[in-house]
Amino acid sequence: MGDTTAPPTDGVCPADHGSSRDRGMPIGHLCDPCYAAYIDEADNRQAEDEGATAPPPPAAPACPVCGRDQDRWPTGYGRWILLEPRRLFLNTAVPAEQQWFIAHDGIAVNRRHGTTPLGDRCRIAHRLVCGHGPRPTNLAHAFTEAWLRNRADAGLPPGEPDAGDTPQ
User: Fold this and answer.
1) CA separation (Å) from 153 to 58, 69, 140, 156?
2) Degrees (nearest 5) of the Cα angle 94, 98, 102?
3) Separation CA 32–CA 24 (nearest Å)
4) Cα–Cα distance between 26 and 12 in angstroms, integer?
5) Where would I find the beta strands (DSSP E) of the chain?
6) Which one, 46, 53, 62, 99, has the greatest CB density within 10 A?
7) How far apart are CA 20 and CA 14, in angstroms?
8) Under a CB-based contact definition with an 8 Å cutoff, are residues 153 and 131 in contact?
9) Helix, strand, coil proportions of the chain in percent (round to 5)?
10) Residue 46: in which H helix or E strand, if any?
């Protein structure tokens, strides 16, 4: 299909798929297949950055590390996020880029890009506090508390996970 990671600047789509059209800045001229690939790649990068990598339904909403069911929500860019179940955190206790809100339409929205909070409490991604994962470092105290609670719920001792804690 050609390289769609960098938008063309000469008014011609980098692949030979027929006519292209100007998609605006910063994308430039792309044909429909290349534009779709460009958007999909951007969505994939955002999903990786935000941790929105959960499988869609009908797959179980289980954490791939600990196996416990989580709250799975769709994002606005066609991916799914596993959020810490049944727990709300004060916005003031969680860095903005780690805050998730469920909008009125059931879409999970991350505050990473300056989104206005949808209330005074937020959700957090489970991957950051999975009891079978490493202890959160350089994150708010609320993350350590959630991690310790998840370890206790899983019957694991407090402290660093043992090599046998994480399923292979």
Assistant:
1) 26, 12, 21, 8
2) 100
3) 14
4) 14
5) 21-22, 29-30, 71-74, 80-83, 89-90, 100-102, 108-110, 121-122
6) 99
7) 10
8) yes
9) 25, 15, 55
10) helix 32-50
23-65 pLDDT per residue, tens: 887 777 788 888 888 888 888 888 888 889 999 999 999 999 9
Residues paired with 54 in a beta bridge: 80
Whole-angstrom distance, CA of residue 24 vs CA of residue 26: 6
Amino acid found at 85:
P
d(CA 63, CA 72): 10
Provide the residue type at 140 as one letter: A
What is the SS3 assignment for 123? strand
For residues 150 and 140, give the distance between their C-alpha atoms in angstroms, rounded to a whole number: 16
CA dist 47 and 75 (Å) reads: 9
pLDDT in tens, 138-148: 888 889 999 99
